């Protein structure tokens, strides 16, 4: 299957495959953890049991997604030692502490409070349970912060020096953590996670509205998801534009590949909407373009000059075909999200948000769009950095472990088989949970871990008293 491929190409394929599986789960769990915190807070504030039902429903889905994210992430860390040992050796003094901080300050925070969030409402009380839920959400955001700091440093390295062994060693941790691309990348990724979750929640609510327009829980989750989509999609477009300008400043070759600019344009560059990159001839075939619009977007001036890949040595060019199309997939899905949000706002203003079957069908169809956009954005970012692991300083070909191609190919095949079996089954289980709807979930306020002895009479009496109190409050 992999005859003729080098160890470097196979190692890159392996890391790309495993990280692609991994990134979709944190992208979902980051947004879902915040959504759970909002649901729990609204339940405590309003005592509207719909919020509680939704919290109980989505917390189980979160637990499965969180577990799948943890398992898929562990595999990636081993590849730094097996396939990318030279990279680990040279960047370890800088990146090692950052990844350790992520585990100590973020992952432990999430994992430590997760059990309380899932099972502890009766045992610790509403206040501490709310604190635990908030800490899980906060932990996911801090985890994303550290990981994105690591990745951003690889894109825009700063605050380091080189020692006699050729290693990157820290000189200024403030510059390392808050490197030039970090703020833009963090905002862009967190907003992407919120949009991904909003689309999944919205698709789930829309699916159940298509079955029953009077489903109160489906109405509530669909409405909340569409509000998030309407508000965040425009912010993401502006954040993406700012991120693009930052990338132009620090990684111009990546932007050239994204735009498909093989040639420099001294009097204003066109925006190429579509086309087929021709690497051999250094041009975009069958290009559909708008004159000078790229200069307006990137330089805010129609006539501003833009350099092309003809100013970059051939050996330093990123793979244009992949970056060109992955960027367009991401942008197209971003505007599709904006369109869905505007459509839902229009129906909401008319008072027909829940009586709009075509809107609901569109929301169901857009359910996976956030994951696809995240993957497309990651491909744009990572492939656009090539041929470097540390941009401009450490080449990918110089980062590889001394491994043979057959060994990497064997482990890649094993990963493909195991991942599709385990994570395929996990994904089907998540979809089955979403398909069941809120009404099949046990909404008992005092639910906890299942007892082998069943529900005792005293506990049942206590639960009935608590339920009567809640109904009185409502």
TrEMBL record:
Which keywords does this chain's UniProt record carry?
Cell membrane, Electron transport, Heme, Iron, Membrane, Metal-binding, Oxidoreductase, Transmembrane, Transmembrane helix, Transport
Q: Does the keyword DNA repair apply?
A: no
For this record, the Gene Ontology CC terms, alphabetical, are: cytochrome complex; plasma membrane
UniProt xrefs under InterPro entries: Cyt-d_ubiquinol_oxidase_su_1 (IPR002585)
Q: How does it sit in the membrane?
A: Multi-pass membrane protein
Q: Please report which protein family the annotation says this sequence is part of.
A: Belongs to the cytochrome ubiquinol oxidase subunit 1 family.
Enzyme Commission designation: 1.10.3.14
Positions of the UniProt region annotated as Disordered: 451-474
Task: Provide the protein name.
Answer: Cytochrome bd-I ubiquinol oxidase subunit 1
Q: Name one GO biological process term.
A: aerobic electron transport chain
Q: Tell me where in or outside the cell this protein is found.
A: Cell inner membrane; Cell membrane
Q: Does the keyword Oxidoreductase apply?
A: yes
Membrane-crossing residue ranges in chain numbering: 15-39, 60-78, 98-119, 131-154, 186-210, 222-239, 322-346, 358-379, 407-431
Q: One Pfam family, short name please?
A: Cyt_bd_oxida_I
Q: Gene behind this chain? A: cydA
Give a GO molecular function annotation for the protein: heme binding
């Amino acid at each position: 299957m992999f005859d003729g491929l080098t160890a470097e190409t196979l190692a890159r394929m392996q890391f790309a495959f495993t990280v692609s599986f991994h990134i979709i789960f944190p992208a979902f769990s980051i947004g879902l953890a915040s959504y759970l915190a909002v649901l729990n807070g609204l339940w405590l504030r309003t005592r509207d049991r719909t919020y509680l039902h939704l919290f109980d429903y989505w917390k189980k889905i979160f637990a499965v997604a969180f577990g799948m994210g943890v398992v898929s992430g562990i595999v990636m860390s081993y590849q730094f030692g097996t396939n990318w040992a030279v990279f680990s050796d040279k960047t370890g003094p800088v990146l090692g502490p950052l990844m350790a901080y992520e585990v100590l300050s973020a992952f432990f925070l999430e994992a430590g409070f997760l059990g309380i969030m899932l099972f502890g409402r009766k045992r610790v009380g509403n206040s501490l349970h709310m604190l635990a839920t908030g800490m899980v959400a906060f932990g996911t955001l801090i985890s994303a912060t550290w990981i994105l700091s690591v990745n951003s440093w690889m894109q825009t390295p700063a605050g380091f020096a080189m020692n006699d062994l050729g290693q990157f060693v820290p000189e200024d941790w403030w510059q390392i953590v808050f490197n030039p691309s970090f703020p833009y990348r963090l905002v862009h990724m967190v907003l992407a996670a919120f949009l991904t979750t909003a689309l999944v929640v919205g698709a789930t609510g829309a699916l159940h509205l298509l079955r029953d327009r009077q489903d109160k829980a489906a109405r509530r989750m669909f409405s909340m998801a569409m509000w998030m989509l309407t508000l965040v999609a425009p912010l993401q477009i502006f954040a993406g534009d700012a991120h693009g300008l930052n990338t132009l400043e620090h990684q111009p070759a990546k932007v050239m590949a994204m735009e498909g600019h093989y040639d420099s344009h001294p009097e204003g560059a066109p925006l190429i909407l579509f086309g087929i990159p021709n690497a051999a001839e250094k041009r975009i075939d069958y290009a559909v373009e708008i004159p000078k619009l790229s200069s307006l977007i990137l330089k805010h001036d129609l006539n501003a000059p833009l350099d092309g890949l003809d100013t970059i040595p051939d050996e330093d060019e990123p793979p244009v075909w992949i970056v060109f199309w992955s960027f367009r997939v991401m942008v197209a899905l971003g505007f599709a999200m904006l369109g869905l949000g505007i459509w839902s706002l229009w129906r909401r203003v008319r008072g027909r948000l829940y009586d709009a079957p075509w809107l609901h069908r569109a929301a169901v169809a857009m359910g996976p769009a956030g994951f696809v956009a995240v993957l497309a954005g990651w491909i744009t970012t990572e492939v656009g950095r090539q041929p470097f692991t540390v941009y401009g300083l450490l080449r990918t070909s110089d980062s590889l472990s001394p491994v043979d191609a057959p060994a990497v190919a064997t482990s890649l095949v094993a990963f493909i088989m195991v991942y599709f079996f385990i994570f395929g089954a996990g994904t089907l289980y998540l979809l089955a949970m979403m398909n069941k709807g809120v009404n099949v979930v046990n909404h008992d306020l005092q639910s906890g871990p299942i007892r082998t002895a069943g529900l005792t009479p005293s506990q049942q009496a206590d639960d009935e008293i608590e339920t009567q109190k809640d109904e009185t409050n409502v």
